């Protein structure tokens, strides 16, 4: 039999039935990213991926420099070995590649008189070996067996023997005076040459006589060409002593002389060897 409702004890209401269950959605709503933020993240990710591809597959400037430096060192080493230590640039001998040129720049140029130059002939082992060519002093200390005492070209050391470099008369022409040397390049008539060919002599005798004006013009032209050959001959020796031809020589300084010093010396005639070497004038 059921008890009337008014006599019943009130039932215990549990928290589960009396208090509704609170969810995360009810307490703190989840913030949702806006469309602009999402697009920014995608662009940033794409930029990172692009940079990663470039870093993994491309070469930086530093990498290129490292490769070039390695190739340069390898080339220098192979050149040094193949030339027995003569060159690290495969025979290329420009001034900027020569260490002796840089040392000379740092040391400075010497300036000596002809008398002072004589003490640099190799007799004093504490001094370098110098020779001069037309006023320019060169250091040839790298070849003491050639330019030092007892060497085959020792007579060039400690002096300016520019005239002998051209005439080949090493004893009598070991002086710097070049006056008249151009005559060795001026042709002579076949009649004046003892060893001229007979047919050349015959042609010369049958030649037309030139007028004074024609002779003057011919003389001027031959003299100009002779001086050019003289300059070319000196330049060939300058190139050797500058080191342009691979020799370990270099310019050391200049000879100090008073202006017009040639006037105080008697002008020399051509030595016998230079006179004999003069070319024969040709006639058609």
UniProtKB/TrEMBL annotation:
Biased composition (Low complexity): 12-22
InterPro entries per record: Cyt_B5-like_heme/steroid-bd (IPR001199), Cyt_B5-like_heme/steroid_sf (IPR036400), MAPR/NEUFC/NENF-like (IPR050577)
A Pfam family assignment: Cyt-b5
Gene3D superfamilies xref list: Cytochrome b5-like heme/steroid binding domain (3.10.120.10)
Cytochrome b5 heme-binding domain: residues covered: 112-190
Any one Gene Ontology cellular component term annotated for this protein: endomembrane system
SUPFAM superfamilies from the UniProt entry: Cytochrome b5-like heme/steroid binding domain
Family: Belongs to the cytochrome b5 family. MAPR subfamily.
Listed name of the protein: Cytochrome b5 heme-binding domain-containing protein
């Amino acid at each position: 039999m059921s008890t009337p409702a008014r006599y019943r004890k009130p039932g215990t209401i549990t928290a589960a039935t009396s208090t509704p269950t609170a969810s995360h959605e009810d307490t703190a709503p989840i913030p949702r990213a806006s469309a602009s933020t999402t697009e920014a993240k995608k662009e940033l990710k794409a930029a990172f991926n692009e940079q990663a591809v470039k870093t993994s597959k491309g070469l930086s400037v530093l990498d290129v420099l490292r490769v070039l430096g390695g190739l340069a060192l390898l080339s220098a080493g192979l050149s040094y070995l193949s030339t027995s230590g003569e060159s690290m640039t495969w025979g290329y001998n420009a001034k900027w590649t020569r260490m002796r040129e840089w040392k000379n720049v740092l040391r400075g140029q010497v300036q000596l008189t002809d008398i002072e130059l004589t003490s640099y002939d190799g007799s004093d082992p504490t001094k370098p070996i110098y020779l001069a060519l037309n006023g320019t002093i060169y250091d040839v200390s790298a070849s003491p067996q050639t330019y030092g005492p007892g060497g085959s070209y020792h007579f060039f050391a400690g002096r300016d023997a520019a005239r002998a470099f051209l005439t080949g008369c090493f004893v009598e022409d070991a002086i710097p005076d070049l006056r008249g040397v151009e005559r060795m390049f001026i042709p002579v008539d076949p009649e004046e040459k003892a060893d001229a060919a007979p047919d050349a002599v015959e042609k010369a005798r049958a030649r037309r006589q030139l007028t004074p004006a024609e002779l003057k013009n011919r003389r001027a032209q031959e003299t100009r060409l002779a001086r050019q050959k003289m300059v070319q001959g000196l330049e060939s020796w300058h190139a050797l002593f500058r080191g342009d031809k691979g020799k370990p020589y270099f310019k050391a300084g200049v000879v100090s002389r008073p202006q017009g010093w040639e006037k105080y010396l008697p002008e020399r005639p051509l030595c016998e060897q230079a006179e004999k070497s003069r070319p024969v004038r040709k006639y058609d």
